[in-house]
């Protein structure tokens, strides 16, 4: 999968990882192994190890391989790999715009923007590459799916080197969390070509009655060997830029569903998605503005 940054530089993800995933998803023996690997109990076993002090030795090689600048993070002595993986970045490096009505990214990641449209059967859906997702299957609720007709699906795919905490995009009233159990495929686009990962993977969502962007559905999707989606709050009042939660080990995804006429996005995000590129964004980076301000 190719990604593009603000300056227009194009990046291709680690080809060695892609080769391994293709073997798993495109071969008979690979898919046999996957039937076991994607089960939540496997992630729980891996998670216990990564939570233990015995996993500390994995930190230094990971930092070197991914060229992570540890000077950007709050200094800490890590007691496990997951402790390192969920490390906190210095606040000044992920600040939200001060202007009201600016819609900014809830996390670091690769961003794609999809319009939510009705198909021939009158079902609200959006397409990721060649895979069609209906909101009803994503949310397991036809009533809730109807609410976002004509809006947008914002998909933020986090890779292992990204900052794995995420936050609220506006002030507002947050609902309780709704958990949807499932399996744990990788969120790499290679897997999406073979299986509808976002409606099969374990996921959790809540609704935010926001001050500037109508009602927003916020969803976190677990991935291969990711045993935990950790959300901090139940039903409560929240603030823009306030930390919502974090993912433990692995690449994961944050999805925001927006109602019609809630946000006007910068054109570059639409164009990049149409070309098949994901756009590299950082938490707090401006993506658009409230509809009534444009």
State the assembly state of the protein chains: single chain
Low-confidence segments, given as residue ranges, are: none
Order of secondary-structure elements? EEHHHHHEEEEEHHEEEEHHEEEEEEEHEE
Tell me the number of helical segments per DSSP (H or I, 4 or more residues long): 10
Fraction of residues in H or I helices: 10-25%
Q: Quick check: average pLDDT?
A: 86
Form type:
globular
Q: What Rg, in angstroms, do the CA atoms define?
A: 18 Å
End-to-end CA span: 33 Å
- The chain-level structural class is alpha+beta
Largest sheet: 11 strands, mixed
Report the β-strand fraction as a percent range. Answer: 25-35%
Strands, count: 20
Overview of the structural elements:
A hairpin with a 5-residue loop joins strand 5 (117-118) and strand 6 (124-128). The chain is globular. By secondary structure, it is α+β, with helices and mostly antiparallel strands. The longest helix is centred in the first third of the chain and has 12 residues, at 15-26. The chain has 10 helices and 20 strands. It has helices at residues 15-26, 28-37, 40-50, 59-65, 81-85, 135-139, 142-146, 189-194, 197-200, 267-274, and strands at 2-4, 10-12, 102-104, 109-115, 117-118, 124-128, 131-134, 152-158, 165-167, 172-174, 178-180, 203-210, 215-221, 229-231, 236-238, 243-247, 252-258, 263-265, 278-281, 286-290.
Entry summary:
The chain has 294 residues and is an alpha+beta fold.
Topology of this protein?
Blueprint: E1 2-4, E2 10-12, H1 15-26, H2 28-37, H3 40-50, H4 59-65, H5 81-85, E3 102-104, E4 109-115, E5 117-118, E6 124-128, E7 131-134, H6 135-139, H7 142-146, E8 152-158, E9 165-167, E10 172-174, E11 178-180, H8 189-194, H9 197-200, E12 203-210, E13 215-221, E14 229-231, E15 236-238, E16 243-247, E17 252-258, E18 263-265, H10 267-274, E19 278-281, E20 286-290
Parallel strand pairs: 1-19
Antiparallel strand pairs: 1-2, 3-20, 4-8, 4-19, 5-6, 6-7, 8-17, 9-16, 10-12, 10-15, 11-12, 12-13, 13-17, 14-16, 18-20
């Amino acid at each position: 999968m190719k990604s593009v940054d603000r300056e227009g530089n194009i990046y291709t993800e680690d080809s060695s990882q892609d080769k391994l995933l293709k073997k798993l998803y495109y071969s008979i023996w690979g898919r046999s192994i996957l039937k076991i690997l994607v089960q939540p109990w496997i992630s729980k076993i891996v998670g216990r190890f990564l939570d233990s002090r015995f996993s500390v030795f994995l930190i230094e090689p990971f930092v070197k391989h991914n060229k992570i600048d540890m000077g950007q993070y709050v200094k800490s002595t890590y007691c496990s790999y997951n402790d390192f993986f969920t490390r906190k970045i210095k606040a000044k490096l992920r600040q939200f715009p001060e202007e009201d009505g600016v819609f900014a990214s809830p996390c670091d990641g690769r961003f794609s923007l999809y319009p939510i449209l009705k198909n021939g059967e009158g079902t609200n859906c959006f397409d990721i590459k060649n895979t069609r997702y209906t909101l009803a299957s994503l949310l397991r609720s036809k009533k809730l799916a109807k609410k976002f007709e004509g809006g947008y699906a914002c998909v933020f795919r986090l890779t292992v080197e990204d900052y794995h905490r995420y936050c609220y995009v506006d002030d507002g009233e947050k609902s309780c969390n709704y958990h949807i159990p499932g399996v744990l495929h990788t969120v790499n686009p290679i897997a999406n070509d073979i299986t509808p990962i976002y409606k099969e993977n374990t996921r959790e969502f809540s609704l935010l009655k926001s001050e500037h962007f109508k009602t927003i559905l916020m969803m976190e999707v677990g991935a291969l060997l990711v045993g935990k989606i950790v959300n901090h709050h139940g039903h409560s009042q929240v603030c823009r830029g306030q930390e919502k939660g974090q993912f433990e080990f692995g690449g994961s995804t944050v999805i925001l569903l927006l109602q019609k006429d809630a946000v006007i996005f910068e054109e570059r995000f639409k164009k990049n998605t149409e070309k098949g590129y994901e756009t590299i964004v950082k938490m707090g980076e401006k993506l658009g503005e409230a509809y009534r301000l444009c």
